[in-house]
Amino acid sequence: xxxxxxxxxxxxxxxxxxxxxxxxxxxxxxxxxxxxxxxxxxxxxxxxxxxxxxxxxxxxxxxxxxxxxxxxxxxxxxxxxxxxxxxxxxxxxxxxxxxxxxxxxxxxxxxxxxxxxxxxxxxxxxxxxxxxxxxxxxxxxxxxxxxxxxxxxxxxxxxxxxxxxxxxxx
Amino acid sequence: xxxxxxxxxxxxxxxxxxxxxxxxxxxxxxxxxxxxxxxxxxxxxxxxxxxxxxxxxxxxxxxxxxxxxxxxxxxxxxxxxxxxxxxxxxxxxxxxxxxxxxxxxxxxxxxxxxxxxxxxxxxxxxxxxxxxxxxxxxxxxxxxxxxxxxxxxxxxxxxxxxxxxxxxxxxxxxxxxxxxxxxxxxxxxxxxxxxxxxxxxxxxxxxxxxxxxxxxxxxxxxxxxxxxxxxxxxxxxxxxxxxxxxxxxxxxxxxxxxxxxxxxxxxxxxxxxxxxxxxxxxxxxxxxxxxxxxxxxxxxxx
Lengths: 170, 302
Known about the structure:
The complex is a heterodimer of chains A (170) and B (302). Chain A has 170 residues and is mainly beta. Chain A is 8% helix and 63% strand. Chain A starts with a helix and ends with a strand. Chain B has 302 residues and is an alpha/beta fold. Chain B has a single domain (23-296), classed as Rossmann fold. Chain B is 29% helix and 25% strand.
């Protein structure tokens, strides 16, 4: 334990903070969402919209540290076998890392926690998971991406894939 | 042209429903209502007959509009016993549970259990008084009915209109806060989050039965209240009245009506009660519903 703390402290000391660049960004995404739930053998799919605010993002060379706050909404599913997924509002926080392979292409990945407010039942569930997004630069400040996320807990799991557009604010 | 139009109309009609509308699916409706008129111990509840009749009529109309057959099993008070309405056969705690277990629904059927009467919280669980004297042998735990329903095929929904009825409707993740007297105080988002985190690690043990109850396990269900602007409310319990009102039941004509929305789900019933109940009752009796990520489609029609 002591060795690990010393190693982390040394790594932090060696970290080129002075070279870090604040890179706040916002993004919006539209996705296809699929999920499975306890008591149901069926897959329930819906459309989903997300917005992410990454106000604390730092860039260091080709590296980028991310802390996006995500807000989203997914629609009800079509009823199958008398079951219907509810309208859900998503609130998520992720910690992630991004790497730019070139000026045009970068890849970001993050792990996080997400709270889902089930609008008809009026209750909250929490799940844990990750998001991976390949980004393609469009000009200096815009990027187009294809986020894939997968979250789950004892209350169920869901995965989404879609398209996103991101804007660097500075 | 007619040959083309008729199959097309049939396809459109079928596409409106998420389940079979070919007459093979049915609604199995089981109701237990007692007035306790001959009881020496319990307070009489004269409105339960109105509750049960109006609720049955509304369920029947919804079932028929959804292309489902309607099979009613009604239990009422006869003399000093609970009896099946049609045969007058007398039932007690064990025989009622056995009756429920003997129902033969199919996998596409909906089973709706409705109770209107007295209820108490005893030994940590909600119990329903299914005998006029409300003696120990007359008390039937909601859990036992739930387990009996869970053993059946099909989709199951319980609607419990009694005092202290909410012990089987787990409220985890809602953040609902209640005072020392059981009164509803509001929602606490932090509590909801903590409850949800706790739930995220334990697999939700669920038997597939959706339970909607009139109040929490520590609250009482009101009845016979005259609510301004609510026609005829004094003849019904507050919970059943608000539930039926949200479905569009015509209390002036005492006639079932179809709600405008073409679908009735478990959570639309729950929301209907929450949105219909007047503020002065909302704090005293907070409707409770089983919390599941999936909603149950009870009726769907065009």
